Give the backbone structure.
Amino acid sequence: MTIDKLSIDEKIDLVKGMGSWHTNDLGGKLDSIHLSDGPHGLRAQAEDASGNNDSIPATCFPTASALACSFDTALVEEMASAIAKEAIEAGVSVILGPGVNIKRSPVCGRNFEYFSEDPYLAGKLATEYIKGIQKLGVGTSLKHFAANSQETHRMTSNSIVDERALREIYLRAFEIIVKAAKPATIMASYNLLNGLPACENKKLLTDILRGEWGYEGLVMSDWGACVDAAKCLAAGMDLDMPDSHGNHKEGILEALEDGSLPMEALNRAASNVIYLVNNYPAKVKDGLHNVSNSVLDEHYLLAKKISSECAVLLKNENALPLNNPTKVIVIGDLSRRMRIQGGGSSHINAAKTINILDALEKENIETVFIRGYDCGSKSLDALQKSDKKLIDEAINKLQNEIDKDPNIPILIFGGLTDNAEGEGYDRESFALPANQESLYKEIRKVTENVIFISFCGSPYDLSSIDYAKAILNMYLGGEAVAESCVDILVGKSNPSGRLAETWPNRVEDSPCFKNFGRNNTAVDDVL
């Protein structure tokens, strides 16, 4: 199909989504392709899905915050290719990722989806991610373009960035990727950039992206980010997602009539949609398919390997690896209710996962489990209160076990829980949840001979557990992180990662502390 065969109404229909996840098929004249969330796995949903977690089973790989610690471009490409293979089996044409927004503050709730505070590192890793997916005929969507580095007021915040900071920090990763990897699509973000919504920002979408960088692919909106479709199309956006149910049609027709939206802009947008559909067709055409068990089993082992390559040993005073342990004490609810990924639009329905207790059992290591704190509360307030009953029970049980065997290894599993960080909100505190901090302070009164294993999407204050003889940071290591972690503890594999971001002692030490989040919508950043 070519653009000259379409009516104006059909062109307008083509530049808006169909349903939540598909491009418009114009009543059967054109294929409709499925766009699926990622980026650390396939979050493919049917149109009638009931929520974020209602998606087909897929491999949950380590999140970008973990993956970046590998500094391994070949590993990133290998993971991306595995995601593409699952997309092909499922009938998905475009993965909505990777995310390369700069980690401006350690308390951004969505930092787990982003690689680094370093635009060069983010650019290089994301380049290989895109190449790994697109070489198999699946498209990507580089996001969120641009200067979208906080979740507070994310749909209305105005990122005020001077030219030097914009070019050297917030656009640099995107520029590296666009020129080297040629992503099939780019996703324009919710926020305003220097007073203009990203989807309506001609300087961003046309002058810089297409004019300076030579980008030839499709630009889509983040879901619901297109407010005035005519202005967005005129600025350089091509596809409004999801389905606007005809709400923008009248405005587009009026803009065409008064000349504020040139017909050339509508033609460009419709042509880019046609090009995307023709160049990234689904390999299966009859709806969403499940990924085969053989592929999921193979990719579980890959996820385990990647997790070890990403794990960072922050401290070790001859405590690791453990010396052929037969019995260990395991403290912490996060050992039982594992946190393997972040929450929100990237939440993968992990095909297979086990917890730390089961992984230790597979190694024939007896465990004494001590809960210590509750990580499953849906209330953030509950996490900020000490649970005296749980703490007293933990200390009594710990003391009894130490009395029986003073040399028994003590493994504490803790960090940021699901409600402490996630998409749609920024963290209110740099500290650990108070119910964990209180526990660790009481443990110190009994013994300092402990090993702390950390799970998190971003940095936090480690001062309450800095007495530990070893600190192993697994970040959010994906569905195989428990087995990967145990392999590291017993010396079967090495924690091969290095930090890809700064861990400040205090949140006040981060450069943007005084103008991050807060209640106003203006976010200043200058060099």
About this structure: The mean pLDDT is 94. DSSP finds 16 helices and 15 strands in the chain. Residues 73-90 form the longest helix (18 residues). The two ends are 48 Å apart (CA to CA).
